[in-house]
Design goal:
The protein is an alpha+beta fold and 291 residues long. Helix content is 27%, strand content 36%. The chain has 2 domains: 124 residues, Roll (Nuclear Transport Factor 2, Chain: A); 132 residues, Nuclear Transport Factor 2, Chain: A (Roll), CATH 3.10.450.
Length: 291
């Protein structure tokens, strides 16, 4: 299978900067006026902000290596899961294994990255002293460019599940959108058990804890049998669930999800979650175990 021009640009960036530790190559890959929405980078700082981010990160994790995971190329947009690993502050009293999961969207124009978004798990970064530098509510929830009828139908199915099942809380509609034995993948935490019945039980607990829970799709890309989204979940922790007492705090949780569909229903699901949103409402989060 051939690699799209957009994917080739992103993979060169990973080879030269992420794993080659050559931040001086950022200006070769990013347009001078690119728009940066990664929470790790100061808003409006352009390529200089990226350079500052990389200098700080490589100082803290000098043996950093970044592994690409599931990915989806859609025209001039590329969405990819990344796994960042290394040793934080080696040789110091604060030394520890480092593992971070992100999901990132790169939009390419004229051979360079013109826009960049990311879902970043700050439950890993905050204990190490890294705080978000920006939050953006900029949304592009529609497909862009040319797509087949099947790709558009798959995208509509995913949007329907977010609307009916996850926002309207109609768990009776789950079988419309999910295969009964669908498979769930999460490399950060133990995944929700496979199958639609486990899915319904899990979200019944979520809806009990957050009776007003909504899930808003912020970004949407599709290619062949796969659809990938960024989403923002909002609600207030006012109900008891799984033995946890409500705190009344407002939840804002950002996720990225990739779905593989068969005959219009989800057969497989991968996710990256910024678990700091749960910490903010008083739900303890277990740190990822380096592998």
């Amino acid at each position: 299978m051939s690699i799209s021009p957009c994917e080739l640009i992103v993979r060169r960036l990973l080879a030269e900067v992420h794993n080659g530790h050559r931040p001086e190559r950022l200006r070769a890959h990013y347009a001078p006026d690119h728009l940066e929405y990664d929470p790790r980078v100061a808003p409006g700082s352009g390529v200089a902000g990226l350079e500052a981010f990389w200098a700080e990160l490589l100082d803290a994790v000098p043996d950093l290596r970044v592994e690409p995971g599931v990915a989806l190329a859609d025209g001039d947009r590329m969405m990819m899961f990344l796994r960042w690993r290394g040793t934080f502050r080696p040789g110091t009293p604060g030394e520890r294994d480092f593992e971070l999961h992100t999901s990132e969207i790169f939009e390419v124009a004229d051979g360079q990255i013109a826009e960049h978004w990311a879902v970043v798990d700050y439950s890993v970064l905050r204990p190490l002293g890294f705080l978000p530098r920006q939050r953006t509510d900029l949304r592009r929830p529609d497909l862009v460019g040319v797509h087949t009828a099947a790709e558009r139908a798959n995208a509509e199915a995913v949007l329907g599940s977010y609307r009916e099942v996850l926002t309207e809380h109609r768990l009776d509609r789950a079988e419309v959108y999910y295969e009964r034995d669908y498979v769930h993948h999460n490399m950060q935490m133990p995944a929700v058990p496979n199958g639609v019945e486990a899915f319904k039980a899990y979200f019944a607990g979520n809806f009990a804890a957050y009776p007003d829970l909504t899930a808003t799709v912020d970004h949407l890309v599709a290619d062949r049998d796969r659809v990938m989204v960024f989403a923002t979940w909002r609600g207030r922790f006012t109900g008891e669930s799984r033995g946890r007492k409500p705190t009344g705090r407002a939840l804002t949780l950002r996720t990225s999800d990739l779905f593989r569909l068969v005959d219009g229903r989800v057969a497989e699901h991968w996710e990256v979650v910024d678990y700091s949103g749960l910490e903010d409402v008083g739900v303890p989060v277990r740190q990822p175990v380096p592998r």
